[in-house]
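cron nightly-structures :: item 1 of 1
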Amino acid sequence: MHIRDLQRFLFELSENNNRAWFVMNKPRYDILRAEFLELVTKLIVQIGKTDPSIIGCEPKKALFRINRDMRFSADKSPYKTTFSASILPSGRKKPSEGGGPAYYFQIDATGRLFFAVGEYMPPSDRLRVIRNQIVADPNGFGKVLKNKALKQIFGGLQNEGKLMRPPKGFDADLPHIEEIKNKNFMVWTDCTLDKANPEEMEATLVKGFKAAYPLVSWLRTAA
């Protein structure tokens, strides 16, 4: 994976986000996408050593399209300025499709690597199932929160969109009530790729995804 070439392409795309420029530079995109697909294929193999259910994930299904959905957006830029992938057994990339916990990462035009694991803003029925599982298994969930490797890399669960009060049907004195208020059950972090080579980037992702496997494993018990 030629990180510098990808970063340069995405930067130029951000400066020329239009169909004419993209068509002219499609050969560059095709090469970079093929390299990105190769990276995702390697990651599936590596993640599969910790999480065997991932082995069946089709690499092409894990990749997000570079075309933006502009139907309900005020921003009419036709292309995303990131390369991204979401690795999970079903191949479904959206929480609303019932994909369950995922291993996600993206690279942007500034050379920033962002990676995340878990379930981001799951639909309301799935969210209630996860919250109920916390109530049913407070000790198991507590072990996930205290996991040393997970805390070292990610810090802890993200609380974006967290409720101010306990959700309906959940008492304020329940164990882990602060986490029950969350609307997503995901960890994430980022780093710069300015001095990273492809091998280091792959190793960073594999280490992070492995550290977050206890969260993935626990979320799968919520069914």
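cron nightly-structures :: done
The chain has a mean pLDDT of 92.
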